[in-house]
Amino acid sequence: MRPPHPLRVGLITPDPRHPLLAAAAALLTASGGAVVEVLAPDAGEPPGEPADVYLLKSRVPEAIRLARGLEAAGARVLNSAAATARCQDRTAMAADARRAGLPFAATRTYPSAAELARGEAAVAGPVVVKSRRSHKGDVVVRLENPSAVRDFAADAPPGPYIVQDFVPNAGWDHKLWAVGPHVFAAVRRSELAAPPQAQASPPARTAVPDTWRDLVARVGEVFALDVYGVDVIPTPTGPLIVDINAFPGVRDQPGAPEALAELTLRSARRR
Prior knowledge:
Elements lengths: L7 E5 L6 H12 L4 E5 L13 E4 L4 H12 L4 E2 L2 H6 L3 H10 L8 E3 L2 H7 L7 E5 L8 E4 L2 H10 L5 E5 L6 E8 L2 E8 L20 H14 L3 E9 L2 E9 L9 H15 L1
Parallel strand pairs: 1-2, 1-3, 3-4
Antiparallel strand pairs: 5-8, 6-7, 6-8, 9-10, 9-11, 11-12
Helix pairs in contact: 1-8, 5-6
């Protein structure tokens, strides 16, 4: 039985032409009979009755505030404002993941670049330094030794920062993305990889191991996420999580727009 009015879907994003969003929106309007509305993150709450569901594909504070206001008015938001904000703080993310028993990289936090240099003065091996707060253009850099850390800190923005020990690997990131129950995967050259002359060949594409699928599902449960990414490094003892992202791009993944449209319709009708 059809609903008494078309389903309304809101996109909270500065870029409604993003390939994943645009393709899912086309599917929703063509086959799902939905009306798709775009909300700029800084536009303020729309007047009138909220849409049946909103897709929150923006991490800026204005977008999260907008999502919180819509939730307070009774709207359903994917991912929720709280879940999205939770993935912005890499210190809290690591603590929550390890508390839940997830294999997340050990993470140290420093409130400033100066304290980072002092705190890592005795660490011999390479480290990965990241901005504590995840945002577009944030810092993600591999530093080989304490001298490199000091050089970085001398010119770096104030901070805060997190540090993870560099895990030796072949230089290829394993990207896992979940859209509802569907899991997609890709292998991409790491921005922290060794120089070109030392690069290994990319691993052959294989199906996502069931243990990795289970790990992705567990991340969704722990962080209350519906659409998310998990960055994994294979190690001799199993997969190690180094980052979790709320509503990533999931580009060039056949079936991802269909999965997002399906999740959106299911969530809207539950409301």
